[in-house]
Specification:
Blueprint (H helix, E strand, L loop, with lengths): L2 H19 L3 H18 L6 H11 L9
């Protein structure tokens, strides 16, 4: 596997682990909103990237949410 791909995967997993560890629903919602805004801002730079990563996102749906 390419070093850049491995680094990206490690970064993605780190982000997921950190997010799942946040139990305050308001903080999680704020993070989601920020991530969506950042993604919208980056969209012109990454046209087609969302479609290419859709299968990866679909595969993450089985990650359980924490319950307070």
């Amino acid at each position: 596997m390419d070093d850049d791909v491995e680094a990206d995967m490690r970064q993605e997993l780190r982000l997921i682990r950190i997010f799942v560890g946040i139990t305050d629903p308001r903080k999680r919602q704020r993070i989601l909103e920020l991530a969506e805004r950042l993604a919208d801002e980056a969209a012109p730079d990454a046209e087609g990237l969302a479609a290419a990563n859709l299968s990866t996102v679909e595969g993450c749906r089985d990650v359980p949410d924490r319950i307070e």
